[in-house]
Amino acid sequence: MELRSVAELMDLLYACRGAAAPDACGGRADREDPTDRTDPTDRPDPADRTDPAGRADLLERALRTAALLRRRRPADKELQVAGLVLGVAGLLGPVRADAAGSSGAARAAGAVRALLGERVAGLVREQAGDGGRTAPPPDEDALTLGQAYEEARRADGPGAGVLEDWRTLLELVAARRSPLGAVD
């Protein structure tokens, strides 16, 4: 899969709304338990964007990651965009690599490379980890991205705004890569 426009990336990010991160086995953590016999009126509000463990959904986590990076490194637009793209990584599978080296982060990096550039793709790819293999240590930017992604998991973090607020930044980063301004 290769994303060719900011509109396609925005659609994929919107698909992250309400989706919980994959569990350790790669299954969706947001599936309902068929053996659950609790009263339906006791269930949480579907508009609540956190799971019962207090974790944000993929879109909220991506927005919080990008917002944290915007506060820490306001001039580094590509790093902020990489934080958003990690939400897509969670939608495509476990962010961290499994023993076979497969990960949502690696798939997301491949999907955005042509649109957002090698640096964004590389930062996202580095979040995949090594799947148990030895890999060179990540650079400072990748460490900052990983720390922000982990901090954004908590639902008690700062509000992150809405996805549309990030469209202009995505278009700016994509325009740097696009020949003759052929973005969207």
List the helices and strands and how they pair.
Elements: H1 6-15, H2 58-72, H3 77-92, H4 104-116, H5 118-126, H6 140-151, H7 167-177
Task: Give the SSE order as H and E letters.
Answer: HHHHHHH
Number of contiguous helices: 7
Oligomer: single chain
CA-based shape: globular
Overall residue-averaged pLDDT value: 76
Q: How much of the sequence is in beta strands?
A: under 5%
Percent helix, as a range, is 40-55%
Separation, N- and C-terminal Cα atoms: 18 Å
Number of strands: 0
Compute the CA-based radius of gyration.
17 Å
What does the main sheet amount to? none
The secondary-structure class comes to mainly alpha
Structure description:
The protein has 184 residues and is mainly alpha-helical. The chain has a domain at 58-179. The protein is built from seven helices and no strands. It has helices spanning 6-15, 58-72, 77-92, 104-116, 118-126, 140-151, 167-177. Helix 2 runs antiparallel to helix 3 (77-92), helix 3 (77-92) packs across helix 4 (104-116) and helix 3 (77-92) crosses helix 5 (118-126). The longest helix is centred in the middle third of the chain and has 16 residues, at 77-92. It is globular and about 40 Å long.
